[in-house]
Every structure is written in C-alpha cells, then in structure tokens.
Design a protein that fits this description.
The chain is mainly α. It has helices at residues 6-35, 46-51, 55-59, 67-75, 84-97, 104-118, 127-151, 156-184, 194-206, 210-216, 223-232, 240-255, 270-277, 281-287, 289-312, 317-323.
Amino acid sequence: MSSLLARFAENAFWMARQMERAENLARILDVNESFARDNHGEQDWLPIVQLHADDEAFFARHSEASADATVRFYIIDRQNPNSILQCVWAARENARSLRHLISVEVWSQLNVFYRFVADLRPRDLRLADLSHLCQEIKEGCQLHAGIVQGTLYRDQAAIFYQLGKMIDRADQTTRLLDIKYHRLLPDVTDVGSGIDVSQWNALLRSVAGYHGYRRNHPSGVTPETVAEFILLNPLFPRAVAYCVNEIRQNLTILARDPDLSGVSFEPEGLSDLEALMEQPIRRILSDGLHEYLDLVQINLRRLTDSVSRGFFGAEVQVQSQAQSQA
C-alpha cells in the first residue's frame, strides 16, 4: 500500500463525509415532509434545527422554523455550513485537492452535481416538490458513491474515504431515528395506531431499509423492531452496527500498514461504540433511546477527533474543525 500525505488522507476522509451528510440531510428533510405533524396537524420543522444544533444560527435570521425557512436553510443557504449546497461545495473542494488520486469520472460528476444544487432557487423548493427534489439529491450522492466505489484505487485514500463515509453515516442514522422516536409522536396514544405504522414504514424507506426489514420481520412493523433493525442489524448497510463494524475493519487495515508504523493512534470511542452495539434493544429503549443515541454521537465525535489527531497532524486541525461544523 503506497503512503499518502496527511492532507490528502484528510481530503478523502472529508469528501466522503460531506457527500454522506448531504445525502442524509436530504433523507431527513424528506422524512419530515412526509410525516412531521404537531398536535394540531401542522408540519413541525423545528426538530430538524434542534437535531443539528443550529438554533442560534437559524433564529439569528428567521423568526420561526417554518417549512419555507427550514428547507431553504438546509438546502441552498450559503451562509449555513450545514446546508446541502455547502456540503456538496466542500466535497468538491476536497476533491479538487485529490485530482491526481481520483478518476476523471468522479471529478466530472461532482462538478455536474454541484452545479445542479447551486442552480436551485427558492421556487424550486416548494413543499409539493420537495420529496422529488430530495430524491434527486439522494441519487446524485449515490451516483458519486458508486463511481468512487468503481474507480478509486484501493490504497490509503480509499481506506480514509470509507472511514469518513461510515462515521458520518452512523451519526446521521442516529439523527434520523431520533427525529421520529422523540419528536414526531409525543402523544403515547398514537403508538400502534394506523398512522404510527405508516410513519415507521416511511422511516424505513427513508433509510432504504424497508425491503431489508421486511425480510427480517415479514409479520409486521413495531417501533421496537424498527429501532433494532436501524441500530443493531449487522447486515444492513445503513445500520449503526454495520457502520461501526466497517470502521473497525478499516482502522485495522491502517494499523497493519507498514507505511504507518510510526503513527501513534488510539481509536478513542470505538470500543465504547462496539459495547453500545452489544446492548439488547429492550434495554436501550427502557434506559432511554434518546440518551443512547446521544452516547453514540458523542463517541463518534471522539473517534473523529482521534483520527484527526493521529493521521492528519496538528497543522491541519483548524481545517478539520472547519469541516466538521455539523
């Protein structure tokens, strides 16, 4: 395996994270448009702002978390570093530094996709068209991932790309689950109702897990089995447990790489993540799912920080901090 400069490893890591973040944000917006309702039957968009800890930035420019304001903030707002537009822009800037390592196809598709998102206008964000737009954004991100998978040489750049992708996917999956479980149905009388089942189905479809779930649970849908599938299934590619296993495998490859023998690296948070993945779903739900998801996110941040310190070097910590706004 050929050695890679630290800054290029970081570029690959964050290119993957930013594209994964853009795709998952489109999934969250799509889920919210599908079944986010408050007690009066109105759509509630505040949970999205709160889940991304953007309250201060959002309310500095918007008086309320309306549908129009929230969708615009998270898709085309150039002042929001967590918007889809800014994520795709950041991914393209990281790819620019990797031109000598990535294929022409990766670079070309990322440019075309960025142009598509950059050309969006407020009139393109109408709520009636939001689901279709989110689908287009998801497909653009998936096309990028597919081209990378089919063309990127399997050296250290590919390992860091996969590592970044899995860390961000795990984090964003916990946010998708949290927005359903703790924000959308605060009334316990709704649990088990017809609307509740349809919303769990919508959540499964939002993570592309509906068919995989039905193969495991053909008899029906319950909050417990859906949460278990999304969190703990080791064979579903968007499940947190699957991502944690992939993270461990990629870090093991790096640990065995003789070119990195001089690197001092301790994967902080990874053992705690693996222990969290061993907990049974009933214990997780009884102890508090929100608290459990918080612990997962905290340990993913610890792991990201340790990867930055160990592999990217102190001289690029400012860049790393800027890239991890979300």
